[in-house]
Amino acid sequence: MHIPVKRSKDNQILGGVIAGFCENFDWNPAIGRVLYVILALTPGFPGIIVYLILWMIMEKPDMN
User: Fold this and answer.
1) Which keywords, in A-to-Z order, does the entry hold (predicted)?
2) pTM for this structure?
């Protein structure tokens, strides 16, 4: 199972998941990362688990 958003190959820190979403929606990756960390620190949101699941189901970046 894959979602049609690709992980970022140029702007990645860990797996390129957040940067991939930001590139797809034309957002600033730094702001996207800050928002994700804030969301991950809230109770009831399993941030690391969601990140790992997205990393597994997102398409790999093109290696061109």
Assistant:
1) Cell membrane, Membrane, Transmembrane, Transmembrane helix
2) 0.77
